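Q: Give me the 3D complex with inosine 5'-triphosphate.
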Amino acid sequence: MNATLDTTITVILATGNRDKVKELRPLLEDISPLIRVTTLSELGAEVEIEETEETLEGNALLKARGIFELLSERFPALIALADDTGLEVEALGGAPGVYSARFAPMPEGKSPSYQDNVRHLLASMAGCSNRKALFRTVIALKGRIPSQNGEQFLFEHLAEGEVSGSVTIDERGSEGFGYDPVFMVDATAKTYAEMGITEKNRLSHRSLAVQKALLDLRKTLAENSIPLIYCPDNP
Ligand code: ITT
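A: Here is the predicted complex, encoded as structure tokens.
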């Protein structure tokens, strides 16, 4: 399979989170004129891949591979993109980490809210002087694209972004979501919730991972002679 300007490379985002889709779609479609971004819900493929692995890398790969397999026959040129994020607190041995979305204990069948998780974190660290923490995102890509020799090129990539900081004693700020009010970024001495979205997006764990994943993807496409859109930062 050789890439021509009629070839479409479909990128499927594994997330149901609209903010992530809004952020990622233009960034990916700006890499190559052949890229079209879609989501599982836009495709009517309402699948929930359970995050059963014990690492962020494992879960991100599990989701990217699951979606790739599911839709492999429908799209000849296909890239599945999945991410997983966790807050790793040193004094808690790296918890909540991969369990960040389900940290606070809840009655059977109920999921904790962001507020439940934040309260549980602060309670777990009551009296704790070591408050060091890392926010980490891992993005996994699994793809099949046309290659120069007329064959298909299969690839998997992992990209990681992390930001170091500390867990505050009390909640600070009103922006953002999740653990934002209690995660203070070392470099700014502000919590994510005290930053506007633009400032958070400039330095966050997720945007660092996204930037690396986009660079990796650009490189892989270039190596396979897929036409790219010129970008002054990545000539
Ligand atoms: P998906 O549908 O994309 O899987 P999610 O909410 O399960 O969304 P994440 O893996 O991105 O997935 O995040 C896990 C949890 O970590 C999330 O529920 C939040 O509590 C927290 N979290 C993730 N990113 C965060 C951020 O930028 N700021 C604060 N908390 C965050």
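A quick observation: The two ends are 26 Å apart (CA to CA).
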